Amino acid sequence: MATLILLLPIVPAAVAAIIAVAGWQPATAWLPTVSCLTVTGLGITLAAQVLDNGPVSTAAGQFRVDAVSALMVILIGAVGTIASTYSVAYLRTELMAGTTTPHRARLFGALMQLTIAAMCVVVISDNLGVLWVAIETTTIATVLLVGHRRDRTSVEASWKYLVLGSVGVATALMGTVLVYFVSRHSGGDASTALNWSSLVARAPNLDPGALRVGMGFVIVGYGTKAGLAPLHSWLPDAYSQAPAPVAALMAGVLSTMSMYSLLRFKVIADIALGPNYVRTLLLVAALLSLLTAASLMVTQRDYKRLLAYSSVEHMGLIALAAAIGSPLAMSAALLHMTGNGLAKSVAFSTTGEMLFATGTTRIDGIRGLLHQRPFIAGTFGVSLLALLGLPPFSILASEIAIIRAGVNGGLAWAVAIALVVMLVIFTAVLVHTLNILAGSAEGTVTAQPPTEHVTTVTARVPLVAGLVVAAVIGITIWPISTLLHKAAEVLAR
């Protein structure tokens, strides 16, 4: 089993190297999909092992997989499979239309796999310093991916992402250094001073004053990378300008990696400081994120930015669950990560097909899409229904669990605010969606489609499969119920 842990980042890294050398061509185009399916399979195998025998570690304890890690590996593999499979159709269309070049396609394929490899390192690393290095690696790789088109708006978005993302990871580094300082001064060995399992064991002996400062830096830093308000402004620009498969990967699982990092640090802080300090910070970030998302989604004119602000909303809901902190709330947070990841990756992938078909990302530039492009409209509409928390999708179950946990945990006031804001968001998204899918063409700002685009089977399969998996988890949580329960026990101390 120790070998399987090391294979998690090695497989996508090897595929990245192959694409970098051989280029994006028919012989290599499907390798990323194979890589992500392999990661998913390894995650399922490790999850079974963890549930039977407890956490698995290797490399002298530096890499460790517990129930939380295993769940995140499966999510990385699933979202990566959707994005990578759709990338085959996406890049094929771009190459045929002349909107990208073989060189850029090569870079695209290699960087996508490098990002997936780095995310695997994030979730299997027991060392919080290595975790930070992996998060920084994902930032560098995705900055280049956001600027894939190399026009003015995409380059501007990538620079904004680079600046604010770097501020976030630098702030998180300061917090990580302070945690190391606290750990060493509590008698921690240099080789294990930043190991999460060691810090949890020694948390009662950590200096609360310095740790409180360090946790403040960590929450601000990783909160910025996750897209929590008020330092979220990079997110709508980056997601709206990134190629559809890149936005799918970033919104589906990359932001979740920063939330995952926050949850790991939160366990240490809750034991050493009690729950109130981190709870207060997360509550402020959660409610501010929900309010910010609602205010901007009501008047939104771009459907990719609408989805981007939906990510701010869902990161806020996960932060709210984390602030509540009970086993039910942590289970809901992990389930919400899963449901949001699957639905958001499908939604953003579908925007690629919408752009190819209509030539615009403006909401007022598309009307009656359901009649003109039934498959694209249907997939986009269903993915948005999933994100709004309608049955049969799992986000409904996770939101109900967050409400229950909040009321039981004495935070009914915060849950009430969240519910009001979510109602505003629900109405705004529903109105925008109905206008796109069934609205009248009268007064529409039209755009000339760049090509006579046809959605291929290669594009259809991952989109349908992602929605089917999200619905199955919503109908019966059985495939991951035990894993969720064990993971919640790890995080709710």
Task: Give a verbal description of the structure.
The protein has 493 residues and is mainly alpha-helical. Helix content is 78%, strand content 1%. The chain has helices spanning 2-22, 31-53, 67-97, 102-124, 128-146, 152-185, 196-202, 208-226, 234-241, 244-273, 276-298, 303-324, 327-358, 369-372, 374-387, 394-408, 412-438, 457-475, 478-491; strands spanning 56-58, 63-65. A two-stranded antiparallel ribbon has the order 1-2. A hairpin with a 4-residue loop joins strand 1 (56-58) and strand 2. Helix 3 (67-97) runs antiparallel to helix 4 (102-124) and helix 4 packs antiparallel against helix 5 (128-146). The chain is globular and about 65 Å long. The two termini are 27 Å apart. The model is unreliable at 443-451 (pLDDT under 50).
Structural class: mainly alpha
Mean pLDDT: 93
N-to-C SSE string, H for helix and E for strand: HHEEHHHHHHHHHHHHHHHHH
Any idea what the shape is?
globular
Proportion in β-strands: under 5%
Sheet bearing the most strands, described?
2 strands, antiparallel
Give the spatial strand order of the biggest sheet.
Answer: 1-2
Low-confidence stretches: 443-451
DSSP strand tally: 2
End-to-end span in angstroms?
A: 27 Å
Output the number of helix runs.
19
Radius of gyration: 21 Å
Helix fraction, binned, reads: over 70%
